[in-house]
Amino acid sequence: MAEPELGLEPVPVLEKSAPGFEPAQESEPPRATPDHAPAADQPAAEDAGGPESGIDSETDAGLATGPDADVDAEAGTDASDFFRALKAEKPRAEGAPKTEGVRFLDEYEVGERERAEIEDTIYELRSAAQRLEERLLGGKRVLTRREVAGLAEVSTLSARKLWRSLGFPRVPEGEAAFTVADVRALREVARVVATDLLDEQTVLSLMRATGQTTDRLVVWQMETLVEYLAEAQGLEDSDARRVALDLFEQILDPLEEVLVYAWKRNLAGALGRLNVNVTSGLAIENRQGWFDSSMPLARAVGFVDLVSYTRLSQQMEPKQLAFMVKRFQDLAYNIVATGGGRVIKTVGDEVFFAAETPHAGAEIALTLQEEIREDVQLPKARVGFAWGKVLSRLGDIFGSTVNLAARLTAVADPGTVVTDSETANVIQRTDAYEFTERRTITLQGLGEISVMEMDRGTAEPLPLDFSD
Predict the structure, then answer these.
(1) Under DSSP, is residue 17 helix (H, G, I), strand (E, B) or coil?
(2) Do 208 and 166 form a contact (C-beta atoms < 8 A)?
(3) Is 0.85 topped by the overall pTM?
(4) pLDDT tens by residue, 231-267
(5) CA–CA separation, 231 vs 213, rounded Å?
(6) Distance CA 304, CA 380 (A)
(7) DSSP string covering 152-199
(8) Rounded CA separation 223/276 (Å)
(9) What average pLDDT does this structure show over 11-22?
(10) Are strands 350-355 and 297-306 parallel, antiparallel or unpaired?
(11) Which residues, 6+ apart, have CB-to-CB distance to 167 below 8 Å?
């Protein structure tokens, strides 16, 4: 659903009293034609409608040229009579629509009240959007891209590179689309490169991460508010989006504070993980064959996949499907976070997660299966995970271990958790979890893999602090 565009100026309305909209006089002299040259005391044609006047001589100034010029070709009416009729109309009453002077909507037989409501809605929506935009951007859009680059003391090429990395659309030359806040941001980023803290490519990569993450974030937040307003207040989608603008304005400060707070907390957690030697004592070096020994990080990675999602999505109403996906993803996020893991990404019916130790990965995988199994509003699921070395780039995780976990999930029976024999050998040094060999399969690029089904042994269930 298209989202309301921020920062739109109200569309100019042509009124009877507006400059440039003068009703033709009954005694108006004929305009000059090739057969009727202007008198000496009359202005030349180019003075009235030449290039410098801003009027197209063949359209605006030349509406009346030739013997049939005053006839509306489509309506068959005299154009001067049309203007005289407008002039003769009663003055617009207080509160009447501003477009009363030009009756475009009358062609569609729209009543005065309906037109007034449409205009009020458009004005309110654009006013709220403009007000919120100015608050978000730190002022009005008064600077062009060249002016921003000049004030920030960077080249326009560097400025465009930064804006592209953040996901901003291209702004035409000469358009005032920026504020003073854009200057400050551009100057701060440029200073990092100028002082040789980082090179340009690294800075652009950091900005690309910020742009992609925040783009998804704001869409997610907007749709969440619209969904809430539609359900809690029974609003139509368009009305919910209009109300969401006012609601955003009221919650903007706490959202901004929590955003910075969460970023700092997550950064602290990531920095803390740099000091953890996750391979110590876990016999990861015993992996054979396909093992990615050159990968820098050891992680437990896993997937949880809903069974028969495609068939269910075709049978459900959109709201039912949205509810099921939201419930599934909320449950997965809560369990992975509680278990000390991280959700790498979600794709509809599938969640990809990672954990720092094989035992943490095992507990997250088993808890996911147990909770989904108990939830009557969710279909069955398959869960597969593996322990090994991976490469982390661009917020994602890559490597043969990820490929193995995905393939294991695909061959798992509904309602089960599976892993490979080498991961099982690392975990089953204690009786916290029990493993049963199911079958041996051959996976291209990975060789023969023994599929092991995992169940809970003496391990205590993950303490969950949510009730649904």
Answers:
(1) coil
(2) yes
(3) no
(4) 888 888 888 888 888 888 889 999 999 999 999 998 8
(5) 27
(6) 10
(7) HTS-HHHHHHHHHHTTPPP--TT---B-HHHHHHHHHHHHHHHTTSS-
(8) 38
(9) 40
(10) antiparallel
(11) 208, 211, 212, 215
